[in-house]
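call fold(seq) -> tokens
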Amino acid sequence: MTELRCRKTETLEGDKEENERQDELTQTTHDKQQNDEGGKEEDAQHKEEGSNKNQTSVKRSKSSSTSGFLQRLVRVFFGCLAAVACGMLHAGYLSAYHDRKFWFSTRQDFVEPIYFYIGAVFGLQVVYITALFVCSWVMSGTWMAGMLAVAWYVINRTDTSKVDHDIPLRDNWALPYFSCQVAALTGFLSNNISSATEMFCYLTMSATTFTFLLVWEHSHYVLFLQGLCLFLLDSFDLVPTRKMADIQKVYLSSLFLVYVFQFQNATLLSSPLLSLLIGSVLARYFQQKMKMGPLVARVMKLFLHFHLVFTTGITFSYLVKSFQSPGQDLFLRLTQASVLPFYFLVLSVCLLSTLQTIYRRLRMKYLWTPYVCMFTAFGVCSPDLWMTVFKWLKLKSIHPVVLSLILSTAVPTIIGFSLWREYCPRVLAELSDLQEFYDPDTVELVSWIR
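ret:
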């Protein structure tokens, strides 16, 4: 009996344990289901919160992008308005100044035949001033640089322009187009520009380069200096290769079109600009991996590149000139008669003297001084340039970014106020002073034209 009772108790205890295990299993499964459902709900909540955050971030980014676009649009609009206003004010000043100074201000019967020509020259001066303003503005990022460049240009007008004393010159027609070309080239070489802006700058550069070459006979020498500087920048990998190739296409196409429009002008074929372009294109084709490799290899490739470019350019120029020159027998006969060696000696002396005379007559300061004003205004008003100087000085008391922003605004303001205080009375006195310059030859010429 006792054994039966013990067995019964054992079986009852085993049944209880099994029932407890089953209850625990059901509870755990139920808890797992609840946890799974709770996890799913939490995941759904997290997903909803993440989607809401993404939507809010997208909305914020859209609003910030639209506000940034509107700010840039407003800045560009008012900057262009200020540039055109400066150009118009300068043209009005020139008109009033010439009306006060020269003879046609008091001879009303001679005004009509020549006033269209003078108005066209003054209109191109508007383009000149506007381009200088825009170029300095693009380089520095602020309008103040453009206004300071215009102020320095007007104050130093005896060294920046010939319009004061020589209106009927080709320089006065050509240099405004060159100023537009420089402004378009500056915008084209900028880093952070859109594709549409880059295309606009490229088309403007193409049109102004062609017009500059067409108007002035010395323009290809000026563009040669510009192309040489760009070639050096490209050789040291400071200009993108794609943009340099596009600029060379502009030069070549403009030279070809001007050659056609000027009835096969032979001087363009022997111009140093064309020789430089041909040498640079051929050297680029043969040295496609010039900017790759270790430092020593790149330096060797750079010297080889210079050698190829200048050798090819000089050879091409010599070949073109040899086709336009007399036969080789003439040079042999002159050498045997000992004429040619002394001729080259005398020619070198005369060439140096002629270059000195041309420099004085052409007055290259009129080509150089406006861009001195523009570049100086950029340097004074550019926060990046100030910050670079402060980083070199390693200032620790004040943060260089804050100090550069303060000085890039304060220094141009002080300079502009001092210039206005010193030179504004002089300009007003010049406009109020009535002078009369009477040229009988010009009066006779205008009378013959009428």
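The chain has 17 helices and no strands.
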